[in-house]
Amino acid sequence: MSFKLSKQAVDVGLVTANPEPMLHFYREKLGLEEAPGVTMPGVTTHKFVWGESVIKIVVPDTDIKPPPVADSIDSLFQISGLRYLTLYVSSLDDAIQRCQDAGATFAAPKTEISPTVSVFVIQDPDGNFIEFKQDQTIS
Question: 59 CB contacts (<8 Å, ≥6 apart)?
Answer without folding.
Answer: 15, 16, 19, 43, 44, 45, 46
